[in-house]
Automatic annotation (TrEMBL):
GO molecular function: DNA binding
The UniProt record lists the keyword DNA-binding: yes
UniProt-recorded name of the protein: Uncharacterized protein
Lineage per the UniProt record: Bacteria, Bacillati, Bacillota, Bacilli, Lactobacillales
GO BP annotation list: DNA restriction-modification system
Keywords, ordered alphabetically: DNA-binding, Restriction system
DNA-binding is among the record's keywords: yes
């Protein structure tokens, strides 16, 4: 992923600052740049997306069902609180984050996303038989935070790259759906394209 390479170049290898960490960059707790909260149990749960349950329920590692309403309509990052740790999910459409997740919001969305991918989750795991990460432990993770100008430049650049990636991904989903609809009709002869002039 291009954004990951850029993050490493700027904030780990310090290539934009001649290999030196600038004096105005500082190590701070994650809570200084991001809000961290727990998800909640959904009001209803269905295995199917339908008129009554059109909203995705987000679990620790993937969508785990559907419900009737959203508890988030903003741009969020989600990771597992109980069970699976280290899978980072991005959402900017209405969803319900389940009670086994941590929900992260930040004005520095792309920067925070990169940080979340680099955390050693085993070092903050509290559970023995059932892995557990608390909000408090996540908030206290220490991260390198650059000056405001550098952060804004990274956020704009990374945001632009990720917007293009998401648009391409959405287009691929639409094309796959169209293929899955048309291919059986072509194979059965229901749809005839022999007279098309290409």
């Amino acid at each position: 992923e291009q954004v990951s390479v850029i993050y490493q170049s700027w904030f780990e290898d310090f290539e934009i600052t001649n290999g030196v960490c600038p004096a105005n960059w500082s190590y701070q707790e994650l809570s200084t740049i991001a809000d961290i909260a727990s998800g909640k149990r959904p009001p209803v749960k269905s295995d199917n997306c339908n008129e009554k349950t059109p909203i995705s329920i987000v679990g620790a590692a993937s969508v785990m069902g559907f419900t009737s309403e959203a508890n988030h309509t903003d741009k969020i990052l989600v990771t597992g609180r109980v069970g699976t740790h280290g899978v980072i999910q991005r959402f900017n459409t209405p969803c319900w984050t389940s009670d086994n997740t941590l929900v992260i919001t930040s004005p520095y969305y792309e920067f925070t996303n990169q940080i979340l991918h680099r955390i050693d989750y085993s070092s903050i795991n509290r559970g023995s038989t059932q892995p557990l990460i608390t909000q408090g432990d996540m908030k206290k993770v220490v991260v390198l935070v650059p000056d405001e100008d550098t952060l804004a430049i990274f956020e704009k650049f990374a945001g632009s790259l990720m917007a293009k990636w998401e648009a391409n991904n959405n287009e691929n989903v639409k094309l796959a759906s169209l293929r899955d609809t048309l291919l059986p009709k072509l194979m059965s002869g229901e749809l005839d394209v022999s007279n098309l002039n290409l």
